[in-house]
Each structure stands twice: as C-alpha cells, then as structure tokens.
Amino acid sequence: MSDSLVIIPTYNEKENIERIIRKVFSLTQPFHVLIIDDGSPDGTAEIVKSLQDEYAGHLFIEERSGKQGLGTAYIYGFRWALERKYAYIFEMDADFSHNPDDLSRLREACVNGADVAIGSRYVKGVNVVNWPMGRVLMSYFASMYVRFITRINIQDATAGFKCYRRIVLETIPLNKIKFVGYAFQIEMKFTAIKFGFKVVEVPIIFTDRTEGTSKMSTRIFREAFLGVIQMKVNSWFRSYKR
Fold first, then answer.
1. 3-state secondary structure of 69
2. What does the DSSP assignment read for 176-226?
3. 166, 148, 156, 237: which is closest to 189 by C-alpha?
4. Contact residues for 129 (Cβ-Cβ < 8 A; gap 6+)
5. Domain 4-235 in CATH: superfamily?
6. Phi first, then psi: what are they for 34, rounded to 5°?
C-alpha cells in the first residue's frame, strides 16, 4: 500500500497517457495513480482501463461527463484521496511537461517539513523548455502580478505540479475553491498560505508537451487575471483559523 497518490486529470491524452502511467510506476518510490477523465472522445479512458489489470490496486480511474474544468477535477481527486487515507497527494499533468522523476523530490520536501511542495519553474531563474518566448513572458509576469496583488512570496504562482500533505486538503474548505484554470492553482497556494501552512518551491525543468494539444485558452488566462483581485478582496472577509 502506497501512502502517495498522483492525481492526473485528462482530456484527449491518448498519445501520452500510457507512457506517463508506466513511467510513474517505474519509479523506486511507490505511487498510486488516479486518472480523472472528463469524457475524452479520443479513447483516453479506455487506454487507462486496459492497464488496470496490470496495475491492479495501484491504478484507478474516475470518469466524468464532459469538460468540467481542471480545478473541479482536482477537487474531485482530493476528496477521493482523503477518503482513502493517503498521506501525500500530488497534482501532475499527463503530457510530460512535469517530469515524473521529480515526484520523489516533491514528496521528500513534504516529508522533511513542507506542507505544500511546488515544482517551480522560476525559483532558480527561468527553467522552461520548448515554450515560445511570448508564453514564457506571459507566465513569468503572471506570477509577478500575483505576488504584487496577493503579497505571497511564491515565484511560480501558477505552477500545477505539487505535493500536498493531507492535513492541508483536510483544512482548506474545498467547497469554497471556485476557480477552474490557472486561477485554481493560484487560489490553492494563496489559501494554504493564509491558513499558515508552509509552502516551499522545489526547482524543476518544465518541458512543453510534444504530443497532444495544450488546454490553455484566453478565457482561462482572463479568469486568472481578474480572479486574483477577486480572491484578494474576498480574503478580507474570510477567517483562516485552523
């Protein structure tokens, strides 16, 4: 029985999903994997289910109807993980932009005192491979903007590669997390810090996907831009007592 669960949301990831699953299960540190598929029409869920006998008791899938958003997928996965008593709960993309080898480093950071460990692209310079310069600048300055508005000292505020200790997800009222894209990632970090949890950044190299299609859109970016201000204002009227 592993104490660590990797949650991977998917939508049309048939090119990547088997490889990412096999890579996670090849690691020395044992992890379980939960795929949350939002009705991928390309057969992603069928590929996962075809691997479940091989990884019985270690690979799980939850299927939802239609695209419901990254944030709702992770919150669904968080609740699933908490019901099953995992100690360390991870967010990771399916497309190899997050290197599965870094899962053990994130877990080690939490074992050694962090409550949330972030796989950070910007904590030591800019460590991004294969992104066009415009997107690098957009992401980098988005994190600067988040720091300016929220006053949280996180270099990679929009990062989606993370490890949580279960106490964090037990404490944060998940029903009050409202955003679904980049803003979801920001809101989770901001809320964890407001509750007094220790959040650390672990340097990683982020490599843009080589297979499949990015889910980024101007709507998601706009949600993040406006959502940060809304989140900060709302925080003035909320209690963060544990």
1. coil
2. G----SHHHHHHHHHHHHHTT--EEEEE--EE--SSS-----HHHHHHHHH
3. 156
4. 205, 206, 207, 208
5. Spore Coat Polysaccharide Biosynthesis Protein SpsA; Chain A (3.90.550.10)
6. -115, 115
pLDDT for position 212: 47
- Tell me the one-letter amino acid at 32: H
Q: Do 187 and 235 contact (CB within 8 A), yes or no? A: no
pTM of the model: 0.90
CA distance 85 to 88: 9
Q: Would residue 166 be called left, alpha or beta, if left means φ above 0 and alpha means ψ between -120 and 50 degrees?
A: alpha
Q: Give the tens place of pLDDT for each residue, 160-213.
A: 999 999 999 999 999 999 887 778 999 999 999 999 999 999 999 888 755 545
Q: State mean pLDDT over 47-66.
A: 96
The span from the CA of 61 to the CA of 52, in Å, is 9
